[in-house]
Amino acid sequence: AQSVTQLGSHVSVSEGALVLLRCNYSSSVPPYLFWYVQYPNQGLQLLLKYTTGATLVKGINGFEAEFKKSETSFHLTKPSAHMSDAAEYFCAVISSSGGSYIPTFGRGTSLIVHP
Amino acid sequence: NAGVTQTPKFQVLKTGQSMTLQCAQDMNHEYMSWYRQDPGMGLRLIHYSVGAGITDQGEVPNGYNVSRSTTEDFPLRLLSAAPSQTSVYFCASSSGHTQYFGPGTRLTVL
């Protein structure tokens, strides 16, 4: 079984400040981990993903995330927030066994960016 | 490449009515899925398909039917709409790990 917990349904930052969105997962086998972003009135799009190899992964728009197996975490960061980063962010996990590529999503974190 | 398309964008139904939400993809992906998105609940899987002719239930399948007669299309049928089915519905396709989402259908059941 796999599950995802996103701490904080809303995160508020000032423009130019550090963005940190938290994600913890549970998986009985090595996971594949994802962050998706949803802009208002749109579908989700992939921001970045970890499958194997380097544990620090870089995505679009200056975001990055680090897979920490010991902490079962995959937190999303960006050094300097921009107004255009305001969106809903979803963490997702796929367990890498069984051949199923159906992800389990977290409940989402709404990022609010203040001028 | 249109990606994943969904129709309609918006729909209002009365309780007890039936309707079909359409989803199509032009990427030749094997996997297709339907999710519903409700405030504070994230995305919940309704049904999914791993290829033409093969479907399976997700987390919240009750009240919904699906079929997959072609690789491209994966319609979602509401047999008798209920107010609890008011939601935003997303279709997704994938070949491997990454999901590609459609723009969504906003459904209101009165």
What does this 3D model show about the protein?
The complex is a heterodimer of chains A (115) and B (110). With 115 residues, chain A is mainly β. Helices cover 0% and strands 57% of the residues of chain A. Chain A is globular and about 45 Å long. Chain A starts with a strand and ends with a strand. Chain B is mainly beta. Chain B is 0% helix and 53% strand. Chain B has strands spanning 4-7, 10-13, 19-25, 31-38, 42-51, 54-57, 64-66, 76-78, 87-94, 100-101, 105-109. In chain B, strands 2, 4, 5, 6, 9, 10 and 11 form a seven-stranded mixed sheet that branches. Chain B has a four-stranded antiparallel sheet with strand order 1-3-8-7, with no helix packed on it. Classes of the chains: A mainly beta (115), B mainly beta (110). At the A-B interface, β4, β5 and β9 of A face β4, β5 and β9 of B.
Structure described in brief:
The complex is a heterodimer of chains A (115) and B (110). Chain A has 115 residues and is mostly beta strands.
Principal-axis shape of chain B equals globular
SSE string of chain A, helices as H and strands as E: EEEEEEEEEEE
Shape of chain A: globular
Count of alpha and pi helical runs of chain A: 0
Mean pLDDT of chain B: 94
The percentage of residues in β strands of chain B lies in over 45%
C-alpha termini separation of chain B:
36 Å
Feature tags:
heterodimer, A: 115 residues, mainly beta, six-stranded mixed β-sheet, five-stranded antiparallel β-sheet, 57% strand, B: 110 residues, seven-stranded mixed β-sheet, four-stranded antiparallel β-sheet, 11 strands
In terms of topology, how is this protein built?
The complex is a heterodimer of chains A (115) and B (110).
Chain A: E1 2-7, E2 10-14, E3 19-27, E4 31-38, E5 44-50, E6 56-58, E7 64-68, E8 73-78, E9 87-95, E10 104-105, E11 109-114
Parallel strand pairs in A: 2-11
Antiparallel strand pairs in A: 1-3, 3-8, 4-5, 4-9, 6-7, 7-8, 9-10, 9-11
Chain B: E1 4-7, E2 10-13, E3 19-25, E4 31-38, E5 42-51, E6 54-57, E7 64-66, E8 76-78, E9 87-94, E10 100-101, E11 105-109
Parallel strand pairs in B: 2-11
Antiparallel strand pairs in B: 1-3, 3-8, 4-5, 4-9, 5-6, 7-8, 9-10, 9-11
